[in-house]
Write a structure and sequence with these properties.
Distance between the termini: 22 Å
Strand content: 15-25%
Strand order of the largest sheet: 11-12-13-10-14-15-9-16
Helix content: 25-40%
Length: 756
């Protein structure tokens, strides 16, 4: 939001090339404006001490503490064999805990003179463990002098001042960033305010220059609160304006209205459904049909609980479009999922899907590739449902492409193979994207570009998203939520199995699997790794956290676990493996055998995470469950309990009871509410992960706004943004906002928003 020449000044001109290079490479800061928007993470008060007790491992930290004691030791080493090696050990305290600092060699002289007992200083370094104690080796430090030192500047800087602690790196400590900020702070006066005056005054927000001064040089805590309130509004409002303009532009595009015929394919499909739709499914379907009937393209996000029947709702939308003379395409992230969707959709449609199951009996050479009148007899309203994936044989692929180009196929389900140039549609009316977060924006856009006019768009996500994230990330889409499970879906019981503390619990888990199989049911066992990787210690055991650090064992692998189970606790059962590196035909064959009940236990990677539907599978054992994210565990668990028998999910972990990983697993076991879990997930990860993932890898622009905590600001900013854009779509009367928008939407983000 750095709007004017003074703020666009490159840092190398102001701070010199060396500092500017480090800021650009390590913090992504290039201009004066970038640096002014690099806000302090927190503030220290003189006399207020950081909690040394809560230091995170392996992270760069800045602490303010007092030297309790300092000792110089000499020792013999390879470099100093006569006992001339020197090590300075300094213990610092902040009242809550103690921390050891160590300095070696020539580096001991300066701190030995300066770090005397009683001295207060800021220390920065990377926290490590030595002899079971936390320590900082060779930390950088800045002494905090008080009035008694007689230096007027020191008095002014530190007496009662709030010391900003900046997000820092090993190459650039917090106080060096602070000094650089002081150098550029006068330029803050020239920042142009993006908020319209009536909005700012109506909400009692300070001006942008004042907010920047107060965030970097606050005199009181009230200054910090005022600055934060204002800067949060900036971020929320500018982002929501970008999304509101995107929605507004979409309403200007033309689209072909698609209204189903009262006695057409959709009506025939509804007549043969063996159950009634849930209220939620009916409501969401109405919202979708209303959108499809308009002359502007629908942009709708359909999110719902695992197993809430999203596929059925999407299929009814596709049938409505086929009824209206158009074609519908469903884009799935993997071949396994595309095949699964193709299978379940053709099964749901029955005779209404003519020649939907060519994979059971591939066309004979020279047979033209298509049985007469549809393989399943072909009902009056039937339409062809074709599958298009990268691994299909040439003949089947040719036929599928022909059916799409002539319009004979009303519905196509495929992977990114659908996006290739060769694929031509007769009249593409609706694009359904499954698992949006796995698709780049460019891919969605390429498929949408295949319509004569922009097709309608329905995005499905199986990971429930908290409302605020939906407003921030998918703010250009209208949202529909399915939160009821269909009748007949069984509850899933989830339990944590602490394999290290209580090995007999794991033995019992395998007994439960055998009991379920004895009742005629089936089981999944999920592992984090495949197991045929090269034994590269860097790759195999990539460390994620101190807890992983504590245990050196690499994650459990499908191939090893399947072998151990087949020879050990599940001996005598039919055990098969499924993972992403298998050939597509082999994967499909394994899934078919499992779906047909020929396999008792499927040992798999997360390739089964979404869309796989085997109602007879009732139990899932997730090995090394602590290595999966909260949402991922919820997704996986949704693969069981899909029939009338109750489901059971066992989360196996070796993590100690007090660890954060165990608390995360306990949270998953305690609730089946995906929206609640997604909030927990978001609180534990930073929203940058969530936003970054959805924004086609673009960096998160949120520095001050916390998506979960600032729900009200986001909702209010969305309303204000909609009003501003409705009144002035091109922002002609708001040049400050226009410029802020340009700076928010660097090229990559501009593309993200335009293509959405």
């Amino acid at each position: 939001m750095d709007l004017v020449p003074a703020l666009e000044e490159p840092l190398k001109k102001v701070l010199g090339p060396a500092t500017a290079k480090v800021m650009a490479e390590h913090l992504g800061l290039h201009t004066v404006g970038d640096l002014l928007h690099h806000y302090p993470r927190r503030y220290e008060e003189r006399g207020q001490l950081t909690h040394l007790a809560d230091l995170p491992m392996d992270e760069h930290v800045t602490v303010v503490a007092q030297v309790a004691d300092a000792r110089l030791h000499t020792f013999a080493s390879a470099k100093a064999p006569r006992g001339k090696g020197q090590r300075l050990e300094v213990t610092i305290t902040d009242g809550s805990g103690r921390l050891q600092l160590v300095f070696f060699g020539n580096g001991v002289h300066k701190p030995h003179k300066e770090l005397l007992p009683g001295t207060r200083a800021m220390f920065a370094g990377k926290v490590s463990v030595f002899n079971r104690r936390l320590q900082l080796a060779h930390p950088a430090y800045e002494l905090l002098r008080g009035a008694d030192d007689g230096a007027a500047e020191a008095v002014e800087s530190w007496a009662g001042a709030l010391i900003p602690i900046y997000p820092a790196t090993a190459k650039l400590e917090s106080w060096k960033i602070g000094k650089a900020v002081q150098t550029v702070l006068p330029s803050a006066q020239e920042a142009i305010d993006p908020l319209p005056d009536p909005l700012r005054e109506g909400r009692g927000l300070v001006s942008l220059p004042e907010a920047l001064l107060k965030i970097h040089r606050p005199h009181t805590k009230a200054d910090i609160a005022e600055a934060r309130a204002r800067l949060k509004w900036d971020e929320a409002f500018v982002l929501q304006v970008a999304l509101a303009r995107r929605r507004h532009a979409d309403t200007q595009l033309p689209a072909v209205p698609r209204k189903p015929r009262p006695d057409g394919l959709l009506a025939a499909f509804d007549d043969r459904l063996p159950f009634t739709l849930t209220e939620g499914q009916q409501k969401v379907s109405r919202e979708i049909f209303d959108d499809l009937a308009t002359e502007h393209p629908m942009h709708r996000l359909l999110q719902g609980e695992v197993g809430s029947g999203k596929t059925l709702v999407a299929l009814r939308a596709m049938l409505a479009v086929v009824d209206a003379g158009g074609q519908a395409a469903m884009l799935a992230p993997t071949e396994v999922l595309a095949q699964q969707h193709h299978r379940s959709i053709t099964e749901m449609m029955g005779e209404l899907a003519s020649w939907g199951l060519w994979r059971e009996a591939p066309p004979q050479k020279g047979g033209g590739g298509r049985p007469e009148g549809g393989m399943l007899g072909g009902a009056e309203h039937a339409t062809k449902v074709v599958l298009l994936t990268g691994s299909m044989g040439a003949a089947a692929r040719r036929q599928a492409l022909l059916d799409l180009a002539t319009g004979e196929a009303g519905i196509v389900i495929g992977t990114h193979a659908l996006i290739e140039d060769k694929v031509q549609f007769h009249d593409l009316g609706l694009v359904v994207v499954d698992e949006q977060h796995r698709f780049g924006v460019e891919q969605r856009d390429a498929l949408r570009g295949k319509g004569k006019q922009p097709p309608h768009l329905l995005v499905m996500t199986a990971t429930p998203i908290p409302r605020t994230v939906a407003m921030t990330v998918f703010g250009d889409l209208e949202t529909s939520v399915l939160d009821q499970l269909p009748a007949g879906r069984s509850p899933i019981a989830s339990h944590v199995v602490p394999a290290a503390d209580k090995p007999h619990f794991l033995a019992r888990a395998w007994e439960r699997v055998r009991e379920e199989v004895a009742k005629g049911h089936q089981a999944y066992v999920v592992c984090p790794r495949i197991g045929d990787e090269e034994d590269d210690p860097k790759k195999g055991g990539k460390k994620k956290s101190p807890e992983d650090e504590a245990e050196k064992r690499p994650p459990l692998a499908v191939l090893d676990v399947a072998d151990q189970l087949a020879k050990g606790p599940l001996n005598g059962l039919e055990v098969e493996v499924l993972h992403g590196r298998m050939q597509p035909d082999d994967k499909d064959a394994v899934m078919r055998r499992f779906a047909a009940g020929e396999t008792d236990v499927l040992v798999a990677t997360t390739v089964i995470e979404v869309g796989v539907n085997v109602p007879n599978a009732t139990v899932m054992v997730i090995m090394d469950a602590d290595r999966f994210g909260v949402s991922q565990l919820h997704q996986l668990r949704g693969r069981v309990g899909r029939g009338s028998a109750p489901g059971l999910c066992l989360l196996v972990t070796e993590m100690p009871e007090a660890s954060a990983a165990r608390q995360r697993l306990n949270a998953v076991a305690a609730t089946l509410d995906g929206f609640e879990l997604s909030r927990i997930d978001l609180e534990q990860r930073r929203e940058g992960d969530v936003l970054g993932q959805a924004q086609s890898g673009a960096r998160s622009s949120l520095r001050m706004l916390a998506v979960i905590d600032d729900e009200e600001i986001i909702a209010e900013a969305r309303e204000e943004a909609a009003a501003v854009v409705a009144a002035d779509p091109d922002l002609k009367r708001l040049p400050g906002l226009r410029t802020a928008l340009d700076s928010l939407l660097d090229e990559e983000r501009e593309q993200y928003l335009e293509k959405g």
